[in-house]
Structures are given as structure tokens and as C-alpha cells.
Amino acid sequence: MTCFEAREYLFAFLDGELDAPLSIELQRHLEHCPECAREAEIERSIRRQLGTVLNPQDATAPQDALARVMAQIRSAEGRARRSVWRRFPLHVRLLGLAAAVLLLAVGGWFALRGGPRPEANQSFADLLVADFQHFLEAGKSLQLQSSDPKEASTWLLERTHVAAALPVMQHDRCKLVGARSCKVSGRPAAFAFYEIGGEPASFVALAGSDADLHEMQMVSEGGRTHWVDRCRGHTIVACITDGIVRAAVGRMSEQELLSLLGMAHEG
Amino acid sequence: MNSLASAFEAFVAPHVRRLWALARQYARTPEDAADLVQETFLRAWRNFSPTHEMAYRRAWLVVILRNVATDWGRAERRRIRVTPLDDAELTEVILADATQPFAPLPAMDEARFREFLDDRLVAALDALPAGFREVIVLSVAGELNYREIAEVLDCPVGTVMSRIGRARRALRERLADHAAKGRHCSQSSGTPGCGGSS
Ligand SMILES: [Zn+2]
To answer: Is B8 in contact with B48 (CB distance < 8 Å)?
Structure first.
């Protein structure tokens, strides 16, 4: 290595940014070239002194700033929980939205269809409300943050004894965010939260039967059956397997939501 | 009790010291620096999602801080040092090109050299063009590696490496100027860097 090269690489070397072979070469040059070694020593001193002058002693100001921001965040959340949850931070808002959508979809659908409301369905909706309110009042987001469907399913099974059987996603577009346990119709339910192309979507699973879904539109194709409904720009899909009702809610297409139920069509 | 708020706080806490060091460099007064970090925390919170990979990159908060500083600088509401990188300006400064030895500093013993730096380093740093000063600040005050600086400045890593090299050379020139003018040059036996390598 020449002195010219040594000087060219010196700063990256001192910053620990030089790759190993060059670093070794430069080190060797410094061992044999007193002039470059002296330059390195000078630059090292300058770097050290820069560290000192650029490192402010008094660090209480930023801690205070953070404390103020956190107080603001927490009080805003307190207010939002009591009234408008629109002002919630994105993540909580998305979760709230997903839950609200489910609620509106179920509730609005009953209201629109009118007629006698099956007792079971009414309490199903009521308990969704209760769960939603509890979710907001407790300021809870997810009890488990996980993008691993296997981990989340195991966690949900342990907590709720509901086999959520979250599917392994075939596309990166659909991401599992996390899970929480809740109750729907007094029945322990598994709740999972997803992002599909950045949009929120929820998954709920609980022990049940087609009586829970009988007013949704039943779709049978390819030997498989699912139920679907739409409400205010949102889609709800559901299926029943082995006495477990699984439902997914979001703004995306029926097909995309079906992927949350492990029922997406290939291709 | 909110887990998202707590997650955010836990994420930000380890970076507070570095952000403060940077804010102190971007803003000209401690008051503006405090406002700058506070606005950074707020903006970060508004964009924070624990699922957002970006949020867990160390440079993310620095990117936000720099954006806030840039906005403020543009609005001229505060005295902010961030200026859009002006490559023409930088090119001019590095006319003394990389083939030249480092600017010579008079021979000084270690204690004396430290005293000299104590005296002159801040002024030399402040005399650098903003773009040069900034890479040094990001590297030293921000404790960012070259890859992270590249992310903050939105440029290739190679550009960061060469810009830091030029910035440090330019800093050295400022120091040499100070030394030549100042009382420290009494025995100005200019010590050349090593010779050219042709
Ligand atoms: Zn040499």
C-alpha cells in the first residue's frame, strides 16, 4: 500500500469502516511508515476530541422532552379512549378499526335486515361490543406480538382453547401482526390481527356452528363452503371447521380475506 | 398501561442521548435543540408502529430529526444549521485534492496539541461548509456508521465514505490555518504528511 492509498483510506480505517483485507494492509503500512503513523495519531486525537466537543454534558433537556411527549401521548390516549378514538396512534387505531368494522358489520347487518334477531346472534354482537369496549378502555393492543402463525396459534390455543390454526401466508403482502384472547358470546375467542398490503384486517375464531352465520351469504365452491357479507366498504368472510367458526374482516377483497382463513384459491 | 406507548418509549429511550447531541448541532441554541428533539419524538410517535421495520432502525429517528430541522430551517423559524447539500460548494472546498498530503500541523507535544484542539476545534468545525460539517456531526455526535449516514442523507455509502474523508481533510486544513495564524505556531516547523505516492 502506498502512502497515497493509506491516506485515502485512513478515515474509514479510523472509523472502523474499512473491510478486513484493506484494514490489515493499512495497519501494516502504518507499522512501517512513521509519517503515515504520525498522521494517523493526529487524526485519532482529532477524532477523540471531536467526540468530546460534540457530546453535550447536560442531557436532562431531552429526557424532559421525552417525558413531556410521553405524558402527552398517554393523556391523548386517555381522552381518546373516552371519546374519539380517531386520534389514537396508528396501530391502536387500526386495531380499533378492525374491531369496529366487525361490530358494524354484524350490528349494521342485523339492523338492515330487520326481522327477528336470533337470541344467540344478538348476544354475539353484544359481546363483540363489550369486547371492543374492553379493548379500548384497557388501552390494550395485542397481548402477543408475533408474525409467526405457528407461535400465535399455539399461544391462542393455550389462552383460549380455541384452535385458531392461523394459516402460513403464501404472500408477503399479508402479514400477521399479533394476537389476543377475547370472549364472544361468552365463548372464549381467539383474535389475530393482520396487515394485508398495509391495511388492517382481523381474524376471530371461536367454538360455534352455522347458526352463528345463517344470515350471511353461503358460498360453496370447489367442495368448500364459506360465508360472506359486505358492509360499509368492508368484507366479512367466515367458515366453519370442526366446530370452530373462523371469521375475517377488512377492506380488502373476499379472496384476500379468505387467505386469513387458509382458504385462498391458488393462482 | 398502554403497550404501544410503552413500546415506543422503550424504543426511543436508548437513542435520547445521541439525538440530543445531534439536535445540539443542528440547532444553534439549547432551547431550539430541546424543541427539535421534542418535535422529533412526536413525529416519530405519529409514525411509529412496532411492526414497522423502519422504526427499529437506529437511523430512523435521525432521519426524522433531520427532516424536522430541515423544515424549520426552510421556514426560517429557527436558527438551524441544516442546509441542503450543495455539491458545487463542496467541490470547491476539495480543490486541494486527495493527492495532496494532509495539511501540515506544527509539531506539538501531546498536551499542547490537546490544548490547541480544545481551543480551535469547534471554530474549525464551524468554519466547514454545512455538508462537510454534517457528515462529521452524524458520524461523531450521532454515532452512526457509514451505512446509517447514507440512509439519513439518502446517498450511496461510497459517497459517505468519500465525503467524510474530504470533510476530515478540510477540517485539518482549517486547523492548520488556525495553527499558522495562532500563538500555537511559534515553532512552526511544518510537519509534512507523508510524501505523494506517485
Ligand atoms: Zn505512508
So the answer is: yes
